[in-house]
Write a structure and sequence with these properties.
The protein has 439 residues and is mainly α. 58% of the residues lie in helices and 5% in strands. It is elongated, with a radius of gyration of 34 Å. It starts with a helix and ends with a strand.
Amino acid sequence: MSNTTSKINPEHVLLMEQATLKAPVELLRKVQKVTQKTYEYNLGPSSALQKDLNDLLRKSAASASLPLAPESQADMLKTVDSMLNKMRGLKRKLSELSNQSDAATHVARTRCNYLATIPDSIEASSYTPWARQRLSHQLADYFLRATPPLKVTATTLAKEEGIQELVDFELWDELAKAETGLREGRLDEVLSWVGENRSALRKAKSPLEFTIHLQTFIELCRSGSLDAAINYNKKHLAPFMAAEAGNGVQTAEFHRACALVAFPPTTTCKVYQELYSPNRWSSLLTLFRQTFLSLHSLPPLPLLHLSLQAGLASLKTPICCPHQSTDLMSPGGFAGATNQPSPDCPLCSSPLKKLAPEVPYSHHANSTIVCGITGKVVEGGGGEGGQLVAMISKATGEARVYSREGLIQLEGQHPDHKLVEPISGEVFTWDELKKVFIS
């Protein structure tokens, strides 16, 4: 096999592995942000601990000149005990955050090592175990994307293949939890997730936050809690519009929804029937899933599907899936002889052919020829795999192409050392062969 065919391009592999590193890095960012806020809240200049400490120091300075009353001493001791309890609680919180940071760092390091071991070629000895590990990762991703998620299957596979640190179980659990809530008509889980990721959503200009708040407002109107609906509108939707976070479509929908307090769920007005429609939950579920995957750099399709699509597209030719309007049986043409699917073609000779119509045809700057005798890629012109020669039938004018190396091998295996075409059985001499070149 030629080096160009067996070589692996790491950049192409990394395109599908973007989320592999982003998840632990994003977790590290969140942990660092929580740690910083914890420090500022508990140890900042305006914190309760700092105020207690300042009062304690002031009383201690005053006691240097005048002795403190027993009641004041008891108050100071209570303050010190309270400060110690707060520091112990802070130590526990910071210890938990430190453990989370260490775990995320370990996962990130493991995934960097996994990506650093991408083989240079499929002929390398490390390719088989690496490919198995990658396939296991893609299968686990496929199981966790199922509805409902096949978590037990994914966990068992990850454990048996030793890829637990390559699979983001917590991430998929978070998605499954929010989607379950939406399917059951609950918004609490999604509202909590939106609150945790508000800055990222607004940076990405996602409509999810507005849509979630709008649906909450609609549900309050549906339940008849009009006062609560109006207050919710003032607190969440009106400021959202005032800050010009919404686009024209969102603004129009907001204005339409504001009148919903005057229309019950049984209204016959089509505009407000659409707002009360149960189909909004399905649209909301789709929007949330798309936003969640995009925010974590996860592709909308399973990694296994993307790999299959890339592989099928690289193999697919008009012979595997003929064009409806193209006549490949042109007399005298080389295509006429190769119109029948080859048993050596991974696409033609496997169930994967059923998936081929869904992907585009492969595009190559130069054709790739595999000798039907040796099974090697033929570069032609005396390169690797030998020269290309065509055996043109005297009866039909059809031609089949083989490598010279393969024909020499075929001639040596014949009892009478004749040059016999493997498919038609027609006998040729070397002078009748025509040298061809790849274009």
